[in-house]
# Entry
Amino acid sequence: MTYGWMLLILVVVFAVLMTMGLLNPPKPVMCGLPATFTCKSMKLTTDSNLTLDLYQNTGHDITVAGVNCTKNPGSNPTLTGINVRINNSDHGLIANGIGIQCLDAAGNNATGRTGGHYTGKIIFYYIEDDTGMPHLVSGDINMNYE
# Structure
């Protein structure tokens, strides 16, 4: 009988811990880009709109001409056209209010609930202003819906 009560108490404690979320720790927010780029901040709304504050230190002033946020980048990702100039050793807002959508693996808008988690790839196409040299950069992102 004593073992039965102890087992019941353990089940209740386990259920309480599960409902409080203590056994399911939050996933870290992360933006893994090459060393010359840093995500100063990022935001993903529940309707899949992305805003990103991007810092760059490439040694050149650059113009970010396209961006893609997706769970399935494929071999030839479709980039949403933008025109954001970022000076060397400075930062700029990417996709702020211009409709950059993060996509799910099927290519649909990756909607979610507040506090939910999104994991995918971020891809930038940029051009060095002084040389005209184009570059494609990609990295991993983990963020929460706000």
